[in-house]
Amino acid sequence: MIEYLEQKKELINGIPSNYICDIHTVHSAGISFPAHFHSYIELLYGLEGRFNVLLNGKYHYFAKGDLILINSKEVHQVNALDEFGGNYIVLRFEPEVIYNNMFQNYSELKYTLPFLIENPKQQKVITKDLLINTSIPELLWDIHKEMEEQNYGYELAVRNHIGRIFLWILRYFHTNNPNGIFQFSEDELYLRRLQPALDYVPDNYMNEIKTPDMASLCNMSSSYFSRLFNRIMNMTFNDYVNHIRLKEAEKLLVSTDLNITEISNQVGFNTTSYFIKIFKENKGTSPKQYQKEYLND
């Protein structure tokens, strides 16, 4: 079995960022970026030169003015086709950027589901002729400018622009193929079955949460619940619980005078050492350093 490189979150001012935008330039034909995957949803927008992207064994071509969509955790490799190379805008963002209350509301989660679950029917390339009279190119350049200049409030501008791009793609797909990639009837059914657990965790993260109890809440066996959760949500149930707890911990770190042990206890971690370990694995820095970096901004 081939093991691919998992690209971790990139850091901005020492803190893992939920969105990144830059221009990737290559100067010759060949591999522009080797096969890898990451939790980000990724968009590539061609500026100069011709490229192809290998996604799950299939090549997708793009050139100047074309847009490529790469799902979260989808293995991909970018290759330059011209001798002089070329360049393209790279926009990466975590699913939670477009869905702030992550995994808590089925009516909104269904919009992000197609970008989290692998689907061979999903359109990967939106060509220049479809984008030329839209706001998408301008929004991508604006995001790049905001990320470079980092003027006051740039984070709000970036999130707003990403939301507008995502909404355009969502509506474009729905208009052109309303019964295609967004008709995840089986997955939507399974998602509804998981909803009691998804609702329970954000309201009870500070307490002990056991997988067998959540499986029972969803009327499933523990093993089936775990397998289904992992497949539909693209993460384990424990990862989901930790995600919610870490989000709450982040709020407390920057808005209260509580120490690390008190915060760890308040958000439901059994030990401070485990909280620090999980925080560093997910955020790339310790809770204390995260707090210092935030307060120094």
Characterization of this structure:
The chain is of the alpha+beta class. It folds into 2 domains: 172 residues, Jelly Rolls, CATH 2.60.120; 112 residues, Homeodomain-like (Arc Repressor Mutant, subunit A, Orthogonal Bundle). The chain is 47% helix and 20% strand. It is built from 12 helices and 12 strands. The chain has a 5-stranded mixed sheet, with no helix packed on it. Strands 4-11-6-9-12 form a 5-stranded antiparallel sheet. A hairpin with a 2-residue loop joins strand 2 and strand 3. Helix 4 packs antiparallel against helix 5 and helix 6 packs across helix 8. The longest helix is centred in the middle third of the chain and has 23 residues. It is globular and about 55 Å long. The mean pLDDT is 85.
Number of helices: 12
CATH topology name of the largest domain, in short, is Jelly Rolls
Q: What is the number of strand segments?
A: 12
Low-confidence stretches: none
Order of strands, main sheet, comes to 1-5-10-7-8
Q: Characterize the largest beta sheet: strand count, sense, and whether it forms a barrel.
A: 5 strands, mixed
Order of helices and strands: EEEEEEEEEEEHHEHHHHHHHHHH
CATH architecture of the largest domain: Sandwich
Task: Please give the radius of gyration in angstroms.
Answer: 20 Å
Bin the strand percentage.
15-25%
CATH superfamily of the largest domain: Regulatory protein AraC
Number of domains: 2
Helix/strand-derived category reads alpha+beta
- Shape designation: globular
Helix content: 40-55%
* CATH class descriptor name of the largest domain: Mainly Beta
| Average pLDDT for all residues | 85
Q: Separation of termini?
A: 44 Å
